[in-house]
Structures are given as C-alpha cells and as structure tokens.
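Task: sequence design from structure.
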C-alpha cells in the first residue's frame, strides 16, 4: 500500500470514528432532552451552553445514584395523605398558612423517601432526576411561597401554588401499582370537579409562570449567590 492510499484509509477510519462519537453524543443529548423536558431547556438557558447543561444534568444523575430512594409504605402514604387533607382544609380558611405547611409536608415526604435534607435548589435538582416533569410544579409553587413570605403573593397565586404542590405530592406519595390496595376508593390524584375545571385554565398560567420563576431564580443567584427560603 502506497503512502497516499494509507493516508486515505486513515482519514476514512478517522471519519468513521468521529461519526460514531458524534452519533453517540447526539443520542445522549436526545435522551437527556426527552427525559428532562423543560428542565433541560432551563439548564441550557441558565448555563448558556448545551454541553455544560448536559454535564450538569449527568452530574445530578450521578449524585442521585448514591441515594437510597424508596417508595413510601402504605402506612406512611396514609399518614402523609391525612396530613395533606388537613393542609387542603386549612387552605379554605387560611391560605397563607397552608402554603407554608404544604411546602413543609413536601420536604418531609422527600426526606422519608431518602432525599437528603438540603437547600431548595439542591432538592429541586435532585428531584428532577426521577420526576423531571413535575419538578417544574415544585419550582413554581416554592417561588410563590417565597413571594408570599415577602408579602408579594395574592390569594390566586396561593391557589395556583397549592395545585402545583398537590400534583407533586400525588406523584411522590402514590403507592406503587403492584402494592396499592385493590379496594382503594380514591387515589391521591383524584380531585373535586371544580379543581379539575380550574386545571384547564391553569395550564396556560403554568407555561407563563415557569419562565418568570426561572428568571427570578437566576436573578436571585446572580445577586448574592443564594436563593431565599421559606
């Protein structure tokens, strides 16, 4: 084989290797984007670079792999469901106190399931690995709770926050399908008719609010490096 032919073969082999690497990277990117959805876009927007965002998301996954996440037992699920019903009933008479209680109950559920106690941003990042779609609800609801602590949230904001908290609560507390009681008359996800109707209106509100929440989150981080807590 002459020199020119050897160079051609080497170039073809290099092109094949580079093509394979690009293909694998593209598939990884597609997987991350499909899994994380809005969280993927938020990470790209926040870090300003797709590769940095994907590296950050992979780092989240590695961190969560070290946790011992478990489903709640039926007894634990019943106990938390009772607490949640109390929070919902409290919301009718005292929505402002109920929001703080809802945030606390969610934090306790996460702790019992095996998520470490940490600041909100770390909790949300950890939660996004297994609950990427619903973590948006958590971010929006917590952002309302923070604004409420500042005296900036009205009753409608608080109602929206409760709906977002409830969706995440349902996903975290719902027992696995194979262990759920067959005679359970109502799942945690069921809701009164008026709330079901309100959900339709809330979908558009959520799309607008998630962007506002992300902007506030980035602004808070750029200010003093910390996110306010409730």
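Answer:
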């Amino acid at each position: 084989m002459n020199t020119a032919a050897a160079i051609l073969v080497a170039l073809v082999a290099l092109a094949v290797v580079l093509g394979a690497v690009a293909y694998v990277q593209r598939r990884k990117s597609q997987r991350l984007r499909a899994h994380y959805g809005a969280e993927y876009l938020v990470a790209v927007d926040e870090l300003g670079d797709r590769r940095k965002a994907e590296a950050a998301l992979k780092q989240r996954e590695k961190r969560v792999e070290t946790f011992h996440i478990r489903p709640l037992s039926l007894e634990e699920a019943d106990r938390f469901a009772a607490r949640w019903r109390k929070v919902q009933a409290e919301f009718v008479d005292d929505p402002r106190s109920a929001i703080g209680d809802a945030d606390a109950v969610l934090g306790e559920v996460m702790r019992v399931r095996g998520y470490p106690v940490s600041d909100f941003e770390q909790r949300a990042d950890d939660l996004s690995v297994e609950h990427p779609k619903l973590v948006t609800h958590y971010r929006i609801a917590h952002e309302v709770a923070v604004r409420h602590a500042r005296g900036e949230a009205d009753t409608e904001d608080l109602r929206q926050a409760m709906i977002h908290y409830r969706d995440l609560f349902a996903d975290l507390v719902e027992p696995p399908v194979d262990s759920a009681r067959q005679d359970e008359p109502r799942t945690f996800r069921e809701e009164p008719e008026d709330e079901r109707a309100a959900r339709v209106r809330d979908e558009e509100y959520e799309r607008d609010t998630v962007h506002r929440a992300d902007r506030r989150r980035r602004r808070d981080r750029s200010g003093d490096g910390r996110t306010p807590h409730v």
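Residues 6 and 12 are 10 Å apart (CA to CA).
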